[in-house]
Amino acid sequence: MTTEQTENRSDPTAHHVGVTVTDLDRAVAFYRDALGLDVLDRFSVSGEAFAEGVGVPGATGEFAHLDAGSARVELVAYDPEGDEAAAERVNQPGAKHLGLAVADLDGFYDELPPAVETVSEPQTTASGTKILFVRDPEGNLVEILEA
């Protein structure tokens, strides 16, 4: 690639991580109340361009954007809803998880509401990273790491 091509290219930067949910209000409450993310916006999107863009005929979406520092968490509930899938495990091909960093993982863990499902207590990996995995109310994995 030439210098001119590089200067004209628009390099990607992180904007958001999308999580599809079935109950937007419940998901927003979890990410806001249990994880402490601020709700930036809630909105609906519909129309032919949206349906064609997401590849779902007649689709509409209810969205919530939450502040996760350098990126947003985008929660979306679709109509029509997709087929129910088996609960994901982090080691399955195609598995996804949202990663959030906190300064004090033990303190964060101690303050989690009792209803939050955790995969384990905080663990320090062989690489020295302290991690904790929780599940949101829809079963999506959220990794909390100490940074």
TrEMBL record:
SUPFAM superfamilies: Glyoxalase/Bleomycin resistance protein/Dihydroxybiphenyl dioxygenase. Gene3D superfamilies: 2,3-Dihydroxybiphenyl 1,2-Dioxygenase, domain 1 (3.10.180.10). It holds the Pfam family Glyoxalase. InterPro entries: Glyas_Bleomycin-R_OHBP_Dase, Glyas_Fos-R_dOase_dom, Glyoxalase_1_CS, MMCE/EMCE_epimerase, VOC_core. GO terms for biological process: L-methylmalonyl-CoA metabolic process. It comes from the Archaea. The keyword ATP-binding does not apply. GO terms for molecular function: lactoylglutathione lyase activity; metal ion binding; methylmalonyl-CoA epimerase activity. PROSITE patterns: GLYOXALASE_I_1, VOC. Residues 13-147 form the VOC domain. Keywords: Metal-binding. This is VOC family protein. It comes from Halorussus gelatinilyticus.
